[in-house]
Specification:
alpha/beta, binds S-adenosylmethionine, 253 residues, Rossmann fold
Length: 253
């Protein structure tokens, strides 16, 4: 790629990250409430199913990237006991603050630490975590493959990379009903309640429509070196949970 092309791509990635950070900092205070409301309270169940699919156990070391207000991280913390730990990372400070306040408010002894970090350049050495997870976040990362490869890098050999994400329902009848709700009602209610004038909740359906479908996401995970990639559709295929394994050791020839 010519040098100007490289510069252009870097500028696009930076601009995208900047827009995403601003978007989430603007809606941070209403994020949890609107998640529960707009998903008709299914979001908690999706996160619990993600934790279950990850195979975490007492004592597991978990990294939850793009953690936002930490809902998925806290669902992991409930399962790993005091012997394990969860690191909850995100690059949007305002979202992290809400997560941290939740832990303080509930006076939870979770072993959950919130950390400001970009998912594209995680500040960890290779091969550390038993589970590296992301909920509704990887869609927002400006370079999908690089984000998943970075998650894979910090997972321990034999560890799991887990992705909970919105996807496009397969049944055509359900899909058209759902898309009416998703593209018309949800943005209207979301922008109204969060008092957002930049159409933050219109971004949600637009980004989901552009996101790879379940099979394509599986391929990207495999390209990042994950094996045994399985996915599970939930709630008529509104969301999916993908789980991939980092190989135990690289076979040398
Ligand atoms: C839709 S929220 C998901 C929050 C949470 N995981 C959940 O389950 O509700 C997406 C989050 O991804 C974060 N994000 C997007 N790109 C990121 C990046 N490159 N590095 C770190 N965080 C990122 C945003 O700041 C935002 O908090």
């Amino acid at each position: 790629m010519p040098e100007s092309g490289v510069r252009c791509r870097i500028a696009n990635v930076t601009m995208h990250a900047h827009r995403i950070k601003n978007l989430f900092s603007a809606i941070a205070r209403h994020y949890d409430l609107l998640n529960a409301l707009l998903s008709l309270k299914r979001d908690g169940a999706w996160r619990r199913e993600t934790v279950k699919a990850s195979g975490v156990d007492l004592g597991s070391k978990v990294l939850d990237v793009c953690t936002g207000t930490g809902e998925l991280a806290l669902a992991y913390a409930d399962k790993i006991g005091t012997e394990g730990f969860v690191i909850a990372s995100d690059f949007c400070f305002e979202m992290l603050v809400i997560g941290d306040e939740k832990v303080e408010r509930k006076n939870r002894k979770t072993g959950t630490d919130f950390l400001a970090a970009d998912t594209l350049t995680l500040p960890f050495s290779d091969n550390i975590f038993d589970v590296v997870s992301v909920g509704f976040g990887i869609r927002n990362v400006s370079d999908l493959e690089r984000g998943i490869c970075e998650m894979t890098r910090v997972a321990a050999p034999g560890g799991r990379v887990v992705i909970l994400e919105f996807t496009q329902p397969v049944n055509p009848l359900f899909r058209s009903l759902y898309y009416f709700y998703f593209t018309k009602i949800l943005p209207f209610v979301g922008n109204l309640i969060s008092r957002n004038e930049d159409d933050a909740y219109g971004y949600l359906p637009r980004s989901v429509m552009k996101f790879p479908n379940c099979d394509a996401l599986k391929i990207v995970m495999e390209q990042c070196g994950l094996t045994d990639v399985q996915f599970y559709r939930k709630t008529f295929g509104i969301v999916s949970i993908h789980v991939g394994k980092k190989p135990d050791k690289i076979l040398s020839e």
